[in-house]
């Protein structure tokens, strides 16, 4: 194993995970501390590029080109005065204050970076979450999750291939051959179902005229609870349900999946949904490697339990933010939800608190502010409920205003990474390329 990197005596801040929370944090700490030589800021991520995770359902459906939105970690690190180390974290040694990274390999299996350790004085865990299949048989083999860029791209390619196969085969399209079943009607599953409904029709419209969109294409959304979007207010859920039904997405609630097979999905009531493609979006858990890592306190779903200052309960030098952190605030009986707005708020909070900790000042507690829920049904509609807007009451919104609010969360993330000018230029560049490129990715 290669020994730990030599350092200059400056405080070493290591952030593991360059997602919604981690990349914002290292960017702003790099600009604040790294640029002035006040600390070494290092990002560790197993990937080479960052894509904001809530965009993944659009990548899967083909309505968003990953190349226009991906942030290259090496380049970004160079611009924002932090260092980027590629590698998958596999262990933590609290006695030597080191993070252990696995070796990384190229597509041919040749080693790119060796197994190594990265030393820290302050460590921030921001490794996000992965899909929780609750041990349901067949999910690992036959369903696709939307946890990573690679999974979203793979799903899209399988989708286009299924359409090309159906168009060129000699016989008619078989029942189930062009059916997609999305399991889990939280925000991810619901948004994906609506986006797929539109993009599948668009792909057929490009000349695959042996496919009949009304007869051959089908999207089914399956939910175990008694309504879709169980975590949002009833009115919002009912509104989205009505929209999905109107456009022709089949929605099955109170439907518990017992098995995913190569040819479809089996339900507890004995029904079987024939499907060429199955997406599993029914719940998340923190990555399994976190379980009891370094003797830290973790939950049954592997989240790191943190105090109100986001420090892990057994080690104040280790923080956890984003989906992998478990925080129940005083006066609340539910944990802060695994959402991009929580990740953003926690990163913003630590940008101020880490310098305070380095200076030996006491930390102030983190307060999560829930701004509400917004659900984008692609070009069909965007609806949402904003929390406490008028005299403390929730406000229901729909249409253009809701769409702008939905996009504003991503714009906030982009602004935190690139600043206002570059974000505006990027938006203008994308608006221009949208005029010259197909609206749906066809390969
Ligand atoms: C399709 C989809 C739609 C969503 N839509 C919304 C929405 O509309 N609104 C909302 O609020 N939230 C939404 N979410 C949830 C939101 O994306 C997450 O809450 C948010 O991304 C969490 O941020 P994070 O920084 O904790 O994790 P992530 O953004 O997932 O980042 C984790 C990072 O850690 C890295 N990593 C993981 N394991 C390791 C390891 N062992 N070693 C090194 N690096 C590692 C990953 O490569 C990744 O870069 C959506 C999620 C999905 C999948």
From TrEMBL:
Residues 12-347 form the FAD/NAD(P)-binding domain. GO terms for molecular function: NADH dehydrogenase (ubiquinone) activity; NADH dehydrogenase activity. Signal peptide: none annotated. The keyword Transmembrane does not apply. The keyword Cell membrane does not apply. Keywords: FAD, Flavoprotein, NAD, Oxidoreductase. InterPro entries: FAD/NAD-bd_sf, FAD/NAD-binding_dom, NDH-2. It comes from the Bacteria. Belongs to the NADH dehydrogenase family. PANTHER family: NADH DEHYDROGENASE, TYPE II NADH:QUINONE OXIDOREDUCTASE. This is NADH dehydrogenase. The gene is ndh.
